[in-house]
Amino acid sequence: PLPRTATAVGMLTAVVLANGNDGDNLYPLTEDMPLAALPVGNRPLLSYQLEMLQRAGSFGEVLVVTNDRHLSRLEAVVSEYRGPLRIELVVVEEGAGSADALRTLRGRGRLAGDFALISGDTISDVPFQKIAAMHQLHGASVTVLLKQQPPRPAADKKKARDLDGTDFVGIDESRQRLLYLESAADCDGGVITVSESMLRAHPHLEVHSDLADPHVYLFAHWVLEVLDHKPHFSSAKFELLPYLVRKQFLDQANLPLPQAEAQPQQATAMSSAAATAARLAGAVRCCCYVVPHDGHYCMRACSIAAYMQANLDICKGGAATFDKAAEPTEPLREGNFAASNIDQQSARGGSVELGPRSQVKKSAVGPHCRLGAGVRLTNCVLMEGVVVHDKVHMSNCILCRGAEVHEGATLKDVQVGSNVSVEAGANVKSEALTAEVDAEGSVVGSAEED
After folding, report:
1. HSE of 136 in the Cβ direction (CA atoms, 13 Å)?
2. Mapping DSSP to helix (H, G, I), strand (E, B) and coil, where does residue 169 land?
3. Nearest 5°: CA angle at 110, between 108 and 115?
4. What is the spatial distance between Cα 176 and Cα 82, in angstroms, rounded to a whole number?
5. CA 381 to chain CA centroid, nearest Å
6. Beta partners for 14?
């Protein structure tokens, strides 16, 4: 059997995927800003992963994966970190998947022991030290964090079309072993097939469709060898993880490993392949740490709706044990109502100006924003340097850096790209407004339906 990992808890390395391959779901927010730098409660998303890892006390080094296009922006984010973690930005090729990134890190000698792999859009206050303890106790090949979703009303049955993005997850009765994993998109009509060998070993298998995967994994170091023998694997979530789960119940004869060759120079490679085969043959053990729906906060800000919800949760407090960015202590000039007319369930950045008779509720207002008189904001996110003129009403909106909304406009469920100007009196609903230059050289709003 595979021996328990020899890596000490305090020696774990974390890999944070900040190269933004999922950023398209947040367009136009990620048009000129990496996903991991997007503000949530006026803090960059990356800061939440760093705080989770720091709280655990199990990590010494964090490798933040990015690409050349986003390097300078993330350098600025990392420079603001003041904790004990050693953080290094690692550049990979544009479009590299999570498995590709792990190969790059392995090739550079950066992963010497067991390691965590975390998505750059995850916000979770789950105590990671408990996940690490479970991983070591069971000698796991991989330990996966899963969050149970709130129960649906009895009359609200899930239909086949509602399974998009859903995984069928099989766990044992102890809720600690991950036995089955299949995307609903790969199952014909929601029908799954379970092997006899699995059922013989675990007759009380539980299959769930309400367990969300926030993309937080802890891998044994030897799993990197699998990537060497599976060079076509690009994704840890969609290829490596399902492969390991399946191999728990298959013997060595069923494994597509390289065959021995006569050349002496290949002896080392074949020795490695044999070691991988021996582990996969009977010692792959996939575990899971399941958080109940009313337990610790755990979500991915990987869509417009999820990003809005994360801001609301962090700003109002109580849902998670994270704090929004500290309120500025600078004195306000006379006629600036930012301190009194922005409610306690909102976040306010530095140098914010707010005119008379304006109200801001359940919103995040970034630094250097200027809001005029008679403005009404509810559940909005304003990034740095946004200008909102008099008598503008907005709800459920996101305004990227440098955006400007002119007098009397009404916006609902709208995303406004960086440096986009919304004309006076506009009435816009459920659209994304992106940059477009008119004949006079001005940037104006160009509507794209959601």
Report:
1. 17
2. strand
3. 140
4. 35
5. 18
6. 62, 116
One DSSP character per residue, 84-153 reads: S-EEEEEE--TT--HHHHHHHHHHTT---S-EEEEETTEEE-S-HHHHHHHHHHTT-SEEEEEEEPPPPP
Helix axes 45-56, 71-79, angle to 10 degrees: 50
pLDDT tens digits, residue range 335-344?
888 889 999 9
Question: Hey, what are 319's tokens?
Answer: 């849902």
Q: Cα separation of 283 and 428, whole Å?
A: 57
State the pairing for strand pair 39-40/43-44.
Answer: antiparallel
Question: 407: exposed, middle or buried (C-beta count within 10 Å: 0-12, 13-18, 19+)?
Answer: middle
SS3 216: strand
DSSP state of 322: P
Tens of pLDDT, residue by residue over 115-145, are 999 999 999 999 999 999 999 999 999 999 9
| Predicted model pTM | 0.87
CA atoms of 169 and 183, how far apart (whole Å): 9
Q: Report which of residues 259 and 219 the model is more confident about.
A: 219
Reported residue count of the chain is 450
Question: CA–CA separation, 34 vs 21, rounded Å?
Answer: 10
- What's the CA gap between 138 and 131, in Å, rounded? 11
**pLDDT per residue over 11-45, tens digit each?**
799 999 998 655 578 989 998 889 999 999 999 99
